[in-house]
Design goal:
The protein is α/β, with parallel strands linked by helices and 179 residues long. The protein has a seven-stranded parallel sheet with strand order 4-3-2-1-5-6-7, with helices on both faces. Helix 2 links the parallel strand 2 and strand 3.
């Protein structure tokens, strides 16, 4: 399965890097392909290293202004002209999406993917990996949106909140019929 992971390119401490490394190792050992922003820095590098070291494939989608930070030695690397094209390519090349910790870029990617799913423009499973409670506030906001009628479908049909990588991967594999 090609699993797109949206995440930060920042250098982060162990409370984020250790769970990211664990998830990446699980993904690689299971024979899945990482589809990600292609950067070889920060948390993006941690995840790419983990997947590659565990035997998984790497498909990167960088963007012109970040091409200098693109990871060498991937199985495939595409350079998009802008962020909009990058997001479209990441979605097109993936079977499922995992949203890990990140900043405004990750939040932008997450909300666009969820908006597309809300309008049935894709039906891929989406997991929000809530490492160290990072997305607790967003989860509360989504529940409020659902309760107050802002979501046309149940929140559980839109996104699965996973507290760890084991739960995230299990959900994705179950969604894909992999046991």
């Amino acid at each position: 399965m090609n699993i797109c992971v949206f995440l930060s390119a920042a250098d982060l401490d162990e409370r984020y890097t250790a769970p990211a490394r664990e998830f990446a190792t699980l993904l690689g050992k299971a024979g899945h392909t990482l589809v990600w922003g292609g950067s070889d820095v920060g948390l993006m590098k941690v995840v790419a290293d983990g997947v590659q070291e565990a035997g998984g494939r790497l498909v990167g989608v960088s963007v012109d202004f970040l091409a200098a930070k693109a990871r060498p030695g991937t199985d495939e690397m595409v350079v998009a002209k802008d962020l909009a094209e990058r997001k479209a390519l990441l979605l097109a090349k993936s079977d499922a999406i995992v949203i890990m910790v990140g900043g405004t870029g990750t939040l932008d990617e997450a909300t666009e993917i969820l908006e597309l799913k809300k309008h049935a423009l894709h039906t891929k499973p989406v997991v929000l990996l809530n490492t160290a409670g990072f997305y607790d506030g967003l989860k509360t906001q989504f529940r409020r949106m659902e309760t107050e009628g802002f979501l046309p479908l149940p929140l559980t049909d839109l996104v699965f909140f996973a507290e760890d990588g084991v739960a995230a991967l299990a959900y994705l594999e179950e969604s894909a019929g992999i046991h």
